[in-house]
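FORM 12-B: Structure-to-Sequence Request
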């Protein structure tokens, strides 16, 4: 059984929501490199490991919660090469991390969201091209996703909603202004070619 940190500073994901989350991820978890942001007790990352994930990075800024994550990871995973704990803020962790993750689990406090963290996550290309980002949030509230992520599905479980998003292919993420400029340059180029042919 996974121990939960004391106090009200963390909000553990319910067993029902956790089960629903991994029912959607299914085989995607096998061999995956997982990032568990706002880890709390680490229950989501530990569940991923129990379902076949290769490794998990836990990010939790609360000192007491980070210690709980460490105890849980040692008890459940054991192999220290398969997990890493970063007891710092999510933003600081995202600026330090290298490589890519196949699954990113984002469970911030409902009253603050994770807009900046999601933007930084994508700006630093930390999600694999075929990776998935899962955001847990309060039902009835929209998730502010960067344009480089697109929603695959959102599923409500009482007061909690899980939003699953994937990376938008690079060719689809070019800024609109840039695409317009490119389209405007084509007739200019044709005009220049005509002039050069006439001269």
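FORM 12-B RESPONSE
SEQUENCE OUT:
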């Amino acid at each position: 059984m996974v121990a939960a940190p004391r106090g009200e500073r963390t909000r553990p994901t319910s067993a029902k929501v956790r089960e629903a989350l991994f029912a959607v991820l299914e085989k995607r978890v096998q061999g995956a490199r997982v990032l568990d942001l706002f880890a709390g007790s680490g229950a989501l990352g530990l569940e991923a490991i129990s379902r076949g994930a290769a490794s998990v990075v836990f990010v939790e800024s609360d000192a007491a919660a980070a210690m709980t994550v460490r105890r849980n990871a040692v008890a459940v995973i054991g192999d220290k090469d398969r997990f890493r704990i970063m007891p710092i803020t999510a933003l600081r962790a995202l600026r330090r991390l290298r490589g890519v993750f196949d699954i990113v689990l984002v469970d911030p406090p409902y009253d603050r969201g994770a807009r900046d963290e999601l933007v930084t996550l994508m700006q630093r290309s930390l999600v694999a091209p075929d990776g998935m980002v899962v955001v847990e949030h309060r039902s009835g509230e929209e998730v502010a996703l960067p344009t480089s992520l697109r929603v695959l599905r959102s599923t409500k479980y009482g007061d909690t909603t899980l939003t699953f998003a994937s990376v938008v292919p690079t060719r689809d993420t070019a800024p609109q202004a840039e695409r317009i400029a490119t389209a405007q340059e084509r007739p200019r180029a044709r005009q220049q070619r005509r002039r050069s042919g006439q001269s």
